Amino acid sequence: MAPAAKHRLDETRSAAPCCEPMTPDPAYLAEFARQFGFLSAFLGGLSGAFMVQLLSAQQPRRIFTWVILAAAAATVAFIVSVLGSTLLLFAVLPGAPPGLGSARVLTGGGTLAVLPFLAGVYLLLLTVGLAGFVRSRRTGWVTALLAGAGGLLGGWTLVGF
């Protein structure tokens, strides 16, 4: 790398040491919590509606049970994510009680927002992948491949391409 290019890269880096914890802007965290809360509520409603639709079919086949269980698990994961997002949002809003904005609450709220959200997304993809088998094996393999591709693309997005 040319010395001038290396110098430009060094100027863009933070002066803070690599091991110091980052303190995000409260406005950024509030918007993050709003987006995760909205997406979790929307996808949780979708999962719940899908589960109820399958429960009303009253089919004794084993595949129905697996699809219903995956949809129920996705719904629960999204509900927990909504609660974590709400906790995080309450902690970063102006006027929050002093103890609510502690690092412990921020970390816990962020963890409760993100991890169940990711679990819910993958469980919803599992539901989609299994749902095709309700109709036929061919449809099941197509939906399983589509859900698998979605899971791989989602994982690829998370790790930064």
What's the short story on this structure?
This protein has helices spanning 3-12, 26-57, 62-92, 103-135, 137-158. With 161 residues, it is mainly α.
Notes on the structure:
The chain is elongated and about 55 Å long. It is built from 5 helices and no strands. It has 161 residues and is an all-alpha fold. The protein has a single domain (25-158), classed as Butyryl-CoA Dehydrogenase, subunit A, domain 3 (Up-down Bundle). 80% of the residues lie in helices and 0% in strands.
Low-confidence stretches: 5-13
Work out the helicity level.
Answer: over 70%
Work out the helix count. Answer: 5
Number of extended strands: 0
Please give the CATH class: Mainly Alpha
End-to-end distance:
23 Å
What general outline do the C-alpha atoms trace? elongated
Q: Give the H and E element order.
A: HHHHH
The Cα radius of gyration reads: 21 Å
Largest sheet: none
What number of structural domains do the residues give?
1
Task: Report the β-strand fraction as a percent range.
Answer: under 5%
- Quickly give the structural class: mainly alpha
Topology diagram in text:
Layout (H helix, E strand, L loop, with lengths): L2 H10 L13 H32 L4 H31 L10 H33 L1 H22 L3
Helix pairs in contact: 2-3, 2-4, 3-4, 4-5
Name the descriptors.
161 residues; Butyryl-CoA Dehydrogenase, subunit A, domain 3; 80% helix
